[in-house]
Amino acid sequence: MRPYTPPPGLHIHPLESKVGILSPLATQMTGRPVFKAEALRPVLEAADTDVVHFHNISLVGGPECSSWAARPCGS
């Protein structure tokens, strides 16, 4: 991975799991962020979160994660 220094005010929250391939498999089978919910929920519920970029929302439990947003999309 290339080194990256985000500009001031931009915070990156990478998702990593200690269970490896089991994490995306469990999420794909359940539609819920089984092993990543603990990391995702506080970021998405934060009132100061402006932009969330997922490369593949289906692999992080998209429908459930979307419901955690502090503000509805477009607000």
Question: What features would you describe in this structure?
Answer:
With 75 residues, the protein is mainly alpha-helical. It contains 3 helices and no strands. The radius of gyration is 13 Å and the shape is globular. The chain starts with 21 loop residues before the first helix and ends in an 8-residue tail after the last helix.
Order of helices and strands: HHH
Strand segment count: 0
What's the alpha carbon Rg, rounded to whole Å?
13 Å
Q: Structural class per helix/strand content?
A: mainly alpha
The percent of residues in helical segments reads 25-40%
Shape: globular
Q: Tell me what portion of residues adopts beta-strand conformation.
A: under 5%
What's the total helix number?
3
Average pLDDT number:
77
Low-confidence stretches: none
Largest sheet: none
- End-to-end CA span: 34 Å
Q: How are the SSEs ordered, and which strands pair?
A:
Elements: H1 22-30, H2 37-45, H3 62-67
